[in-house]
Amino acid sequence: SELPDRYFEAGIAEANMIGMAAGFARMGQIPFVHSFCVFVTRRAYDQVANQVAYPKLPVKIVGFLPGLTTMLGVSHQAIDDIALMRALPNMTVIEPSGPEQLAGAVTAALETPGPVYLRLLRGDAASAGIAPKPLLRVGEVLRQGPHGTIFASGLSVAAALEAAETLGKDGHKVTVVNIATVKPLDTALVVELARSTGIVVTAENHSIIGGLGSAVAETLMEAGVPAGFARVGIRDTFAEGGTTPYLQAKYGLGAKDIVAAYGRAAAQRHAIEKGRA
Q: Which of 5, 174, 190, 230 has the fewest CB atoms lying closer than 10 Å?
């Protein structure tokens, strides 16, 4: 460690680590805690809720191995962590698209008052091809098109851009938005693009229940936006260990799955328009 006097090893005791961090925060420090996504959220959830989120302490909770990105199997796969952390009052949830946004994400977590959950890919993860820049609290429009919108986060941003290329070859010019801050969600942009394009697809390396797809759906329903809508994510199932490309393909998280979801959303949009006629 470059700063050995500022580093503490808590061992395999995530709940205790959260308590330690809360103590540091109460003494005026801004602690960052780090473990696998599934262990720093689900295993320590009661401590995160009561010792960090409730008192709104500036503890920055850093997890890695999100979703289906590990050979280690179900016990190490965090497919519900965003749902858990979104549900906590006072908690900000950030998931950068890849290494190109890592520095910006850490800076954003540091500068955000109160607790933050930072969901990271491993350091050797492939870039989504986005130029490094400060992480924005608002959705980042990476590609513009009038026929539909894909909202993506984390590992799924690269897949969304690939899907947009495929759709473009068939004449479907779509907007792609990187949602690096999942909570608070940029609801104004979600509503604006849903109304202007009429077709919405969400893509995430997480369960379709409680994550980005749910957040966007909730936003659109409350705003009364009648868009065609489809979610790409882990479809309410546990997985198994495997390479990231294998798992992403088997469980329907790839570019071709986003293209298929766009087709479903477009058909739904057509049915909506037909019903109005």
A: 5
Report whether pLDDT(127) > 90.
Answer: no
Q: How far apart, in whole angstroms, are the C-alpha atoms of residue 214 and residue 232?
A: 11
Q: Which residues partner with 118 through β-bridges?
A: 62, 94
Q: What is this structure's pTM? A: 0.94
Sheet containing strand 174-178, edge to edge, reads: 140-143, 174-178, 148-152, 199-207, 228-234
d(CA 107, CA 112): 9
Reference 138, options 103, 95, 104, 182; nearest CA is 182
Kindly state the average pLDDT of the residues 118-123: 86
Average pLDDT, the chain: 94
Q: Which pLDDT score, from 0 to 100, does residue 123 have?
A: 64
d(CA 92, CA 118): 8
Amino acid identity for residue 90 in this structure? N
